[in-house]
Amino acid sequence: MRIIVCESAEEVALRAAIESIEYLGEALSTQSSGKSENPEASCVLGLATGSTPLGLYREWIERYRAEEISFRNVTSFNLDEYCGIPPSDPQSYHSFMHENLFRHIDIDPAKAHIPVTDCDDLSQSGERYEAMIEEAGGIDLQILGIGSDGHIGFNEPGSSFSSPTRVKTLTKRTREDNARFFPSVDHVPRTALTMGLGTIMSARAILLLATGKGKAKAIRDTVEGPITAMVPASILQFHPYATVILDAAAASELALIDYYVDAERNRQS
Ligand code: PGA
């Protein structure tokens, strides 16, 4: 795992933008970006909701407006969607993505995918989502946040490491963490359709972002703890291209923090 420690949440967003744009290369290039434009280049992006990726989305939007990048050759797949609320609900992840990213950029709405939960057969919907990811050629770069319980997507503690997209029941802690977006915790849906840990691990590269003291323990357990289903994100230790970008507060419980800072400095020089 590559660990990048930043001073602030703003710097996390900036570094995540730089890393993602560099990694996706000519798939995002525009005529005015100064990079060579290859009309054949395209990429598949895995996207996340929650407060953490908002800074990164703002950076992307700014660069899109400055005509430095374009999303016209991007296909995207979001990690998850709540069950039991329609896509038009302001609290749905369909609404979240539209409001915070899609409506501001030039991604083709037909290529911006979010798990479908307003249907009769959720397990079939999960299978279809897996098939669509495969048909698109697999995910090139998956953006992740992390729950205070170590979840990624809505893969709560105990999730199978090889799980595909399926329905998961949210823990009480996750529902309490997400209650800030709803009138009360009782309004937070109890289940969600989420990419599995197997789906996430199939992405070619991963960018996990975390900010704030509330994530410090989950980050310590993910990066330095044993690999265990009790901390779903710890499976990322097995991923060959996982980068974790943290602010100082989220990194504050890491035992080897000085080493990570030093390693990153050596990389830059
Ligand atoms: P947050 O959520 O970014 O709102 O903290 C992260 C998550 O639950 O995965």
Global shape: globular
Task: State the CATH architecture.
Answer: 3-Layer(aba) Sandwich
How many structural domains in the coordinates? Answer: 1
CATH topology: Rossmann fold
Q: What's this, in brief?
A:
The chain has 269 residues and is α/β, with parallel strands linked by helices. The chain has eight helices and ten strands.
What does this structure look like?
This protein is of the alpha/beta class. It has a single domain, classed as Rossmann fold. It is built from eight helices and ten strands. It has helices at residues 9-24, 54-65, 93-100, 122-135, 172-178, 197-201, 216-224, 257-268; strands spanning 2-6, 43-47, 74-78, 80-82, 112-113, 141-144, 166-169, 191-194, 205-210, 242-247. The protein has a seven-stranded parallel β-sheet. Strands 4-8-7 form a three-stranded antiparallel β-sheet. Strand 2 (43-47), helix 2 (54-65) and strand 3 form a beta-alpha-beta unit. The protein is globular and about 55 Å long. The chain starts with a strand and ends with a helix. The model has no long low-confidence stretch (mean pLDDT 96). The chain binds 2-phosphoglycolic acid.
